Amino acid sequence: MRDHRPGADELIFTRVVEAPRELVFRCMTEPEHLTHFWGPAGVSAPLDQITVDARPGGVFETVMVSDADGSEYRTRVIYDEVVAPDRLAWTDPDTGMTTTSTFTDLGGNRTEIRIHQAKVPEPFRSPQAQAGFLTSLDCFAAYLGQLPGR
Amino acid sequence: MNGLDATFTALADPTRRAIVARLAQGDATVNELAAPFDMSLPAISKHLKVLERSGLISRSRHAQFRPCHLEREALDAAAGWIEENRRTWAERFDKLDEHLRQIQRGPAGDEERKDR
Asked: End-to-end alpha-carbon separation of chain B, Å?
């Protein structure tokens, strides 16, 4: 059993990509890049519906469009921290959920992206909200996880 | 309280995860659940109360030994949500990976580096 497991309301996801972290940071903050990858498989994120005001208090808004049926899901979060090229943090005002992305230079043109989400359970307090959110996750996407302590 | 927050809290504890794993094999009494652990019955009962409040397990109100029962739907809801999130980020970063490859490749691949 690991000692440093994430808390019950936290989710952590990491990925290493082959690119300098300055470029990775730009991809995470510029609509022209985000449109290429922000939607998961089968979901697109149209460029003209991405808003990025990358500064504390600024808005980060995206619309996910399902390729299969055209259904849309809009998400709007507020930046808490924008520290290029190290760190990006935002809060979803509807749920209180926070997402912190950390970019670490591993050398050799490699960058680790670490997504840390906290206060995750907030949107799930009622079964109704739970059902709604689970549905929207088909298009939306901001979270990833692992069972605490696994 | 039956939300995923309670489920996550309940599953954050290794003893409670072990209890859930045991109940996945079938209903069990408190004594049976306590057997593998070096813990007092009251300590186990406390864990069971947390699990019961989270909706992950239920206990018969009337049976003398109140066997515990795993509520699989509650467990599936938590596991499904976590898995959905993991998948979403994974797919998003698969696309990012490909995007980074493309933009670093340069136009038509004619910027091959020969300076080393």
From this structure: 63
Task: Find the DSSP H helices in chain A.
Answer: 21-29, 31-37, 127-136
What are the tokens at A41?
A: 């498989």
**Neighbouring-strand partners of residue A110:** A18, A107
Of the partner residues A9, A115, A134, the one whose CB lies closest to the CB of residue B81 = A134
* Complex confidence, ipTM: 0.74
Residue numbers in B near A124 (CB within 8 A) = 3-5, 81
Note the pLDDT tens digit of each residue in B25-61: 789 988 889 988 888 889 999 999 999 998 889 998 7
Is the alpha carbon torsion for B47, B53, B56, B61 positive or negative?
Answer: positive
Peptide bond into A85 cis (omega under 30): yes
Interface contact flag, A121 B17, Cβ < 8 Å: no
* pLDDT reading at B22 higher than 90: no
Is A92 in contact with A83 (CB distance < 8 Å)?
A: no
Partner B, chain A 45-104, Cβ-Cβ below 8 Å: none
> Which domains does chain B show, CATH number per domain?
1-105 (1.10.10.10)
From CA A88, how far away is CA B13, in angstroms rounded?
Answer: 30
- Four-residue CA torsion sign, A19, A25, A28, A32: negative
Q: What is the DSSP string of B12-42?
A: TSHHHHHHHHHHTT--B-HHHHHTTSS--HH
Planar angle of CA A138, A140, A141, nearest 5 degrees: 105
**Measured distance CA(B57)–CA(B51) in Å, rounded:** 6
Superfamily of domain A11-136: START domain (3.30.530.20)
